[in-house]
Design a protein that fits this description.
The radius of gyration is 24 Å and the shape is globular. Strands 1, 2, 7, 8, 9, 10, 18 and 19 form an 8-stranded mixed β-sheet that branches. It is α/β, with parallel strands linked by helices. The longest helix is centred in the last third of the chain and has 20 residues. Bound molecules: flavin-adenine dinucleotide (FAD). Flavin-adenine dinucleotide (FAD) binds next to helix 1, strand 13, strand 17 and helix 10. Flavin-adenine dinucleotide binds next to helix 1, strand 13, strand 17 and helix 10.
């Protein structure tokens, strides 16, 4: 890279957000550099992960069919795991949804980011972007209170009209926290209850065994997401996703709760893998990779300023994620696309002022992204401050269902009366009030 090269846009980070932004701008003929610190795009990235093809198609068109996707998701399972006080886990309450229409029209696929991100970045290169791996952006260059480029670990400075920051989130201070304009950092330090800490193992298992154990047809996939005792009652969830010849097994919870309980994501993972309902699914599967990462959970209120003089912020770096629906990659791609469109309009108008770049915030505000962010703004605090939703209530449900299903000589009238008495003793009014609060938080 030559010194003082000037691009229309420099994009920091080749994750879903950065690559989507780079493809959108390069397709419109803009000069774009996409910088990635990993040896290859994706080599450092972590996701469950389920990817939603609708958003991919919006960016690369029919080429999405060539993407290295693992299995289309035909069945979604949600389990609420329970444990009675100080006892070993004995039950889970499940909701399984198998939708065979997904065979014809899949809307989500399991993916492995190391493969997917590399392919996605290739599409950016094909569109005309300059993709530069093994390049750490060490700081944003600020002149006269405007971001004018980036300084890289290779000793090069790259200049551009706009820097699109798609660095994701990490434990250390990122570029946004380090950069100061008008005496203020571009993003404040994250609080421990605004991020989840997650760990994931990729476990190798023969495709035939995956299909047998997860009740899938050859090539098809399933998700299992587990709440309650799976995270030892902390706000978060654990998952198993089926890939072609591996399983993605992982999950996480709020960093503040790890700090308070002195537990680690690895404790959670071991606890989950040894749950009697999970262990048989993983039997014989060999761990081939172990990964850890943060997930933004600050909700709508946690979103930083996403545009400013000479910069835009997308994806996880902008705290755009919906943990209730385990969506993040799609918010990243869509926000990257909207940022790309904003830069294209700025280029057409030859006006890269902050006022012009504010178009990006307007686009976000009018999109489903902000609608969803507002809708679930209170969801994570609700779980954080009401642990009974993930501990006591699943136990009560377990006891009620045990009574309901057990055939033991008692009449159904007796059983019904016994269940009602138990619910009254456990606080029927409180449970009703908490259910109302939960529904209200997600209205
Ligand atoms: C365990 C786990 C499970 C998840 N499961 C799902 C799921 O099932 N479905 C879903 O939709 N979402 C899921 N997510 C969320 C999803 O992974 C993120 O929302 C998404 O990856 C955000 O994309 P991004 O491009 O903003 O950031 P990232 O994917 O984090 O990409 C950021 C990129 O920037 C690079 N980078 C960072 N700093 C620099 C620098 N200074 N210089 C150069 N490059 C840099 C990084 O190497 C990386 O490539 C999951 C997340 C985790 C942790």
């Amino acid at each position: 890279m030559a010194d003082e090269e000037k691009f229309d846009a420099v994009v920091v980070g080749a994750g879903p957000a950065g690559t989507a932004a780079a493809i959108t701008m390069a397709k419109a003929g803009l000069q774009v550099a996409l910088l990635e610190r990993g040896q290859k795009p994706g080599s450092k990235n972590v996701m469950g992960g389920i990817l939603y093809n609708h958003y991919l198609e919006e960016i690369v068109g029919d080429a999405w069919k060539q993407a290295p996707l693992e299995r289309p998701i035909i069945e979604e399972r949600r389990w609420m795991m329970t444990r009675r006080w100080m006892m070993t886990p004995e039950a889970y309450i499940g909701l399984d949804y198998k939708n065979l229409r997904n065979r014809e029209h899949p809307h989500s696929f399991s993916v492995l980011r190391a493969k997917f991100d590399a392919w996605f970045a290739e599409q950016a290169e094909k569109a005309g972007a300059m993709v530069v791996p093994e390049t750490v952006v060490e700081r944003l260059i600020v002149k006269n209170n405007r971001v004018v480029g980036v300084a890289t670990g290779r000793g090069d400075d790259l200049y551009s009209e706009v820097v699109v920051v798609c660095e994701g989130i990490g434990l250390g201070a990122g570029l946004l926290e380090k950069t100061v304009i008008d005496g203020r950092p571009l993003r404040r330090k994250l609080r421990a209850n605004e991020v989840a800490m997650a760990a994931k193992e990729i476990m190798q298992l023969e495709p035939g065994l995956i299909e047998e154990r997860f009740n899938c047809e050859p090539g098809e996939g399933c998700t299992i997401e587990c709440f309650g005792d799976s995270t030892m009652g902390m706000s978060g969830f654990m998952f198993i996703y089926t890939n072609k010849d591996t399983l993605s097994v992982g999950g996480g919870a709020l960093l503040s709760e790890f700090n308070a309980t002195l537990r680690s994501p690895n404790d959670l993972l071991e606890h989950f893998k040894n749950h009697p309902s999970v262990k048989p699914l993983l039997r014989g599967a060999e761990t081939v990779e172990y990964l850890g990462h943060l997930i933004p959970e600050g909700g709508y209120r946690g979103i930083p300023k996403v545009y400013g003089p000479g910069y835009l912020v997308c994806g996880d770096a902008a705290m755009l994620s919906n943990p209730v629906h385990r969506e993040g990659s799609n918010l990243a791609m869509e926000s990257g696309r909207l940022a790309g469109e904003t830069v294209i309009h700025a280029k057409e108008a030859e006006d890269f002022s902050e006022r012009r770049l504010a178009e990006y915030r307007g686009k976000l505000d009018h999109s489903w992204i902000m609608a969803d962010m507002r809708k679930y703004d209170k969801a994570v605090p609700l779980l954080e401050h009401n642990p009974q939703l993930l501990t006591k209530y699943p136990q009560v449900g377990d006891r009620a269902l045990d009574e309901f299903f057990r055939v033991d000589g008692a009449s159904k009238w007796d059983k019904q009366a016994k269940i009602f008495k138990m619910l009254r003793k456990e606080g029927l009014f409180r449970m009703g009030w908490d259910t109302f609060k939960a529904l209200w938080a997600m209205k």
